[in-house]
Design goal:
By secondary structure, the protein is of the alpha+beta class. The chain folds into two domains: about 1-135, Tetrahydropterin Synthase, Chain A (2-Layer Sandwich); about 135-275, 2-Layer Sandwich (Tetrahydropterin Synthase, Chain A). It is about 30% helix and about 30% strand. Strands 1, 2, 3, 4, 5, 6, 7, 8 and 9 form a nine-stranded mixed β-sheet that branches. A hairpin with a 2-residue loop joins strand 3 (about 115-125) and strand 4 (about 130). The structure holds zinc ion (ZN) (2 copies). One zinc ion binds near residues 150, 169, 175 and 177.
Length: about 280
């Protein structure tokens, strides 16, 4: 099986509102997204398909065949629309990122010849995207940024061993990174609010549990968590999971960019080889 993806762009307006609710309740639940006149985003849509490689042509499916279906669908139903008012589906369902990705999946599934739909990923902006695959669950990923210093040093190793393994990352004063943290939750969009989790709640938890503790700090010197734990990004990802999972019941994944080149993912202790032999 081969997997390929095509990226498309569109722009749309939306508003998060339940008309039966008071203005105050809409504000409370949806914050500034409840503005009845709407606000807009430049969305990036990734359509990923899978299929068998055709030996003669060397392709799974002609990209122009994907484009034909997807571009016309996007043009007709999404691009340039005020979704709440100009798309029947979103007159009934709030056009949250989770609901839009589900709608796109349901609309395109089975429609592209010579391949199967594998995944739909929809970026609302650089700091928020939602994904849908075959199963029922939808995932929502929020991205955060923090700057932190660390020194790679394990108390279980000798000074020589530390220098040998970690090189200049073992320098006594440490060094720092621009970390980007992705917090992914999964679930079914709530039938009323269209959300699998309220972003304001996730933001609040991450602010309290992660940003306040780690942003503009020296992990080894300023934090309880890494006083005796080597702050490798593997450990940082696990610690972040452990701090967030009691507060975010549907936490699915922690993604951590230490730099643009170094990326780490952690899915929690179940499938764990956390501390292998
Ligand atoms: Zn929005
Ligand atoms: Zn480093």
């Amino acid at each position: 099986m081969l997997y390929l993806s095509r990226k498309l762009y569109f722009s749309a307006l939306h508003s998060y509102r339940i008309e039966e609710w008071s203005e105050e309740k809409n504000r409370d639940v949806f914050g500034p997204c409840s503005n009845p006149n709407g606000h807009g985003h430049d969305y990036t849509l990734e359509v990923m398909v899978k299929g068998k490689l055709n030996r003669e042509s060397g392709i799974v499916v002609n990209i122009t065949d994907i484009d034909k279906v997807v571009k016309s669908f996007v043009a007709e139903h999404l691009d340039g629309k005020f979704l709440n008012k100009e798309n029947d589906h979103f007159e009934e369902n709030i056009p949250t990122t989770e609901n839009i990705v589900t709608y796109i999946w349901n609309s395109l599934d089975g429609k592209i010849d010579h391949c199967e739909l594998h995944k739909i990923r929809l970026h609302e902006n650089n700091f928020l995207y939602s994904e849908k695959e075959e199963e029922q669950m939808v995932r929502l990923t929020r991205k955060y940024h923090f700057c932190t210093a660390h020194r790679l040093h394990s108390e279980q190793l000798s000074s020589e061993e530390n220098r040998e393994i970690f090189g200049k990352c073992n320098n006594p004063y440490g060094h720092g990174h621009n970390y980007y943290l992705e917090v992914t939750v999964n679930g079914k969009p709530d039938p009323v609010t269209g959300m699998i989790a309220n972003l304001a709640d996730i933001d609040e938890v991450v602010e309290k549990e992660i940003m306040k503790k780690f942003d503009h700090k020296h992990l080894n010197l300023d934090t309880e968590e890494f006083k005796h734990l080597n702050p490798t990004s593997e450990n940082v990802a696990v610690v972040i999971w452990d701090l967030l999972s009691p507060k975010l019941s549907n936490l699915y994944k922690i993604g951590l960019y230490e730099t643009e080149k170094n990326y780490f993912e952690y899915y929690g202790p179940e499938e764990d080889l956390q501390y292998g032999a």
